[in-house]
Specification:
Helix content of chain B: 40-55%
Strand content of chain A: under 5%
Radius of gyration of chain A: 33 Å
CATH topology of the largest domain in chain A: MetI-like fold
Oligomer: heterodimer
Number of domains of chain B: 2
Number of helices of chain A: 21
CATH class of the largest domain in chain B: Alpha Beta
CATH superfamily of the largest domain in chain B: P-loop containing nucleotide triphosphate hydrolases
Distance between the termini of chain A: 63 Å
CATH class of the largest domain in chain A: Mainly Alpha
Distance between the termini of chain B: 44 Å
Largest sheet of chain A: none
Largest interface: A-B, 18 and 27 residues
Structural class of chain A: mainly alpha
CATH topology of the largest domain in chain B: Rossmann fold
CATH superfamily of the largest domain in chain A: MetI-like
């Protein structure tokens, strides 16, 4: 029985190697018997080329890096840019020898790992191959001479030091983009104007509600909400946080920030949920949407402040829009996720009992996605608050402005107090909404 | 064409094919013209044959079981009846309606009013209480709330869940949830019940209870039922007729007794091998016809005094015959009405219990 296995393995090894079977069979057996030391002379002599010929590319690159470092040291000593050329020549040579030696010790281990991968059928070819040696030589020729020359020569040709640039291309592109922006601003003035008006309408309403309501009433309402949704611990926390906002003179500014956040989240909800539903229903739309959402989230927010100003001038409405760009992706993603997570058997049951697509959506999918959508709202709120300071740059006012002002005046104390106020606003909203989730 | 003396079948499938995949039409044409096997279709067209030429009728009030192992296409087939899956070819008739010719609106109406469905994994709406779940099909038809919740309570009583209406599905055990599923399927009082492995996910004891409960209920409600199962025992306990499915095609359709006494091929024979015959095989199958018995024992019909022998009707099962045989020494006389038609000796009874394939 064990003879069969051995025969089979020998046959596989033969197929794999093609040549020097006896050597590798002996070495692989030694490694299998827990004898960790196995030395490959060919790997020492030929270095990266051995690895390339055997298709072990991880080892190839490790050896290339070691070779280049050693060669640079040797080169510097020969070119005379070192204080003690003999010492550094000796150091370079011994480093080269050491690295090759380590490579020789590792070679058979790497090769054996590659062999077991090959046995599972994932890799196509083993053995020696002239084709791969060729690739190895080309790669080494492409990296060795220039790198060694760049690091060891006393003075280097200029075009090697810096990437050849073309300022003209960059300038022209930027100019064209400017032109497009200008044209858009002019030709779509009424469109942008009406968006601004709509956002300002919502903002003014919320401002009136939050700032206009006398503070004792507002406090009472917030505490009641906290108690209803999240229990007495959150009530205590909310009371303390509101007291801080009041005593330190942040009340009005905090309410103004809340109005800004509220408007942003409202816009996120208004567009995010329908887009999220559509993405859940249409895989193709989702495929297009995903990179757009990635871009919205990763692009630094300062970058889209510029077009926001160009189209909507400065003030609160463009601040809301910039915030929406940043805060809407989680809303969309979590709505999509929530709907996709609804068990297909529930949808099937709805259809089997005669539900129309609309009934499936409103009676099964949306109610079951509520938890996920709530998480989305929470995320949107948090991300909106994180944009407060940046939005203050274009005149959003509120707590963000205090932080920005302290930054400009180098008043660390004031800045920290205002920053803490933003954190507290975020925590009040977060705790109240989280409490809703736990039910 | 239709024979007027027999009523229209409640469900009829005519040459239904379902081939999954992008090139299903080509694949089906190739199957019909070149007779490809399932594997060849997969290799050549990258299509999977779900249902292959299924033709059957379910009579009004009948419980028709479709039995097959997983992957045999039984769940796919049952979804054609309410068109959750569209067939590649073939006709499906429910009563007078050709299901595939309906527009979306009529299809929804038929699903809501005529066809109730029970699923393997219950598929109750987790965010609604039990009563609202049961009332689902009525709600989808826009029945007013008071009326539909009252009907829901009635249906809950039918499956012995009175008083559970206000609970959430997650609070109920698996067996209870499945009873809610049954109540939901019956809420609209549909003519047809589709049951897709309703008891498969339950533990054996509960499964047995629910099977018994369902048999009782089926006798009262007399609903045409298409019952899918992978458990032959279950099919024999519940079904009036059974269809055995393999690789998307029907291997045999018949009553439990027909299947157990005359399996169509080795595949079916292998299935029924370990099934207890006691309640599935009846007197008329194991008896020796009276004339043959008389001839063998050189007796005359006039000499036979029936009062001396124990008697049994034609449709008495083996279990009862054993009781009779245990209490009497004489062979059992089988009666059709008042006339004797056959004799069962102890030898025949034992062979009948054993199964003919073993006996000969």
């Amino acid at each position: 029985m064990s003879q069969d296995i051995n025969d089979n393995e020998t046959k596989q090894l033969k197929d794999f190697l093609g040549s020097s079977i006896d050597y590798y069979q002996r070495e692989f057996e030694r490694i299998a018997k827990e004898q960790k030391f196995s030395f490959n002379l060919a790997a020492v002599l030929f270095g990266p080329l051995w690895a390339a010929s055997r298709n072990v590319w991880a080892l190839f690159w490790m050896l290339v890096v070691a070779d280049v470092v050693a060669l640079v040291i040797i080169g510097r000593s020969l070119w005379g840019s070192e204080a003690y050329p003999e010492a550094s020549l000796l150091f370079g040579l011994s480093l080269l020898a050491l690295c090759r030696g380590v490579g020789g010790c590792l070679a058979n281990h790497f090769y054996r790992n590659y062999f077991s991968k090959w046995c599972t059928g994932q890799e196509q070819s083993g053995g020696l191959s002239a084709h791969r040696i060729g690739i190895g030589v080309v790669l080494m020729l492409a990296t060795y001479p220039l790198t060694v020359y760049r690091f060891s020569a006393a003075s280097v040709v200029e075009y090697l030091e810096t990437f050849p640039t073309s300022r003209d291309v960059a300038l022209k592109s930027a100019y064209w983009i400017d032109e497009v922006f200008d044209w858009l601003t002019l030709s779509l003035e009424t469109f942008f104007g009406s968006i601004t008006d709509a956002i300002r309408g919502v903002l003014d309403l919320l401002d009136l509600l939050l700032i206009g309501t006398p503070w004792p009433v507002m406090t009472l309402l917030l505490l009641l909400l906290a108690w209803k949704k999240a229990g007495w611990r959150v009530v205590v926390f909310t009371a303390a946080a509101l007291a801080y906002l009041g005593f330190f003179g942040f009340w009005d500014k905090a309410m103004s920030t809340m109005a800004l956040v509220g408007t942003s989240v409202f816009v996120c909800l208004l567009f995010g949920i329908p887009i999220g539903i559509l993405a859940a229903k249409k895989p193709r739309f989702n495929a297009v949407l995903t990179p757009v959402l990635d871009m919205m989230q990763t692009m630094p927010s300062f970058v889209y402040l510029i077009p926001a100003i160009a189209f909507f001038s400065i003030g609160k409405p463009p601040a809301v829009l910039a915030t929406v760009v940043f805060a809407m992706p989680p809303m969309i993603r979590l709505t999509t996720l929530g709907i996709q997570q609804v068990s297909p058997s529930v949808v099937e049951a709805m259809l089997a009992f005669g539900a129309s697509p609309r009934q499936v959506l409103f009676k099964a999918e949306l109610p079951l996605a509520v938890d996920s959508i709530m998480t989305g709202i929470n995320q949107s709120i948090m991300m909106s608050l994180s944009m407060v300071v940046i939005a203050a740059l274009i005149g959003a006012g509120g707590l963000g402005y205090d932080v920005l002002f302290s930054l400009q005046q180098l008043e660390a104390g004031k800045g920290l107090l205002a920053g803490l106020a933003i954190v507290l606003c975020a925590m009040i909203l977060d705790r109240i909404i989280q409490g809703r989730k736990k039910e | 064409m239709t024979n007027l003396s027999t009523p229209l079948p409640a469900i009829e499938c005519r040459n239904v094919w379902k081939v999954f995949g992008k090139r299903s039409d080509e694949a089906l044409a190739a199957i019909k013209s070149r007779g490809l096997t399932k594997e060849q279709v997969l290799e050549e067209f990258a299509c999977v044959v779900g249902v292959a030429d299924a033709t059957f009728q379910v009579r009004e009030g009948e419980v028709f079981c479709i039995m097959g192992l997983s992957g045999s296409g039984k769940s796919t087939l049952v979804r054609h009846i309410n068109r959750l899956i569209e067939p590649t070819a073939g006709d499906i008739l429910v009563g007078e309606d050709n299901i595939n010719a309906l527009n979306q609106q009529d299809l929804r109406r038929i699903r809501a009013e005529k066809i109730g469905m029970v699923f393997q994994h219950t598929a109750l709406l987790p965010h609604r209480n039990v009563r609202e779940n049961v009332a689902l099909s009525l709600e989808l038809r826009n029945m007013d709330e008071q009326q539909r919740l009252k009907i829901a309570d009635d249906k809950l009583a039918l499956v012995q869940l009175t008083g559970w209406g206000d609970r959430m599905p997650a609070e109920l055990s698996g067996g209870m949830q499945q009873r809610v599923g049954l109540a939901r399927a019956m809420a609209a009082d549909p003519k047809i019940l589709l049951m897709d492995e309703p008891f498969s996910a339950l533990d054996p004891l509960i499964r047995r209870q629910l099977q018994d409960q369902f048999v009782e209920l089926a006798q009262v409600m007399k609903k045409t039922t298409l019952f899918i199962t992978h458990d032959l025992d279950e099919a024999f306990r519940i079904g009036h007729r059974i269809a055995i499915m393999k690789d998307g095609a029907f291997v045999q359709i018949g009553t439990p007794e027909e299947i157990i006494t005359a399996p169509a091929d080795d595949y079916v024979a292998e299935f029924v091998k370990d099934i207890s015959r006691l309640k599935l095989v009846f007197a008329h199958t194991v008896m020796q016809p009276l004339q043959a018995y008389l001839k063998e024992h050189n007796l005359k019909a006039d000499n036979l005094d029936l009062s001396q022998y124990p008697t049994a009707a034609r449709d008495v099962d083996l279990n009862q015959l054993i009781d009779l045989a245990a209490d009497h020494d004489e062979p059992i006389v089988v009666l059709d009405g008042d006339t004797a038609v056959g004799i069962i000796t102890k030898r025949q009874l034992l062979r009948g219990i054993q199964g003919e394939s073993n006996g000969k």
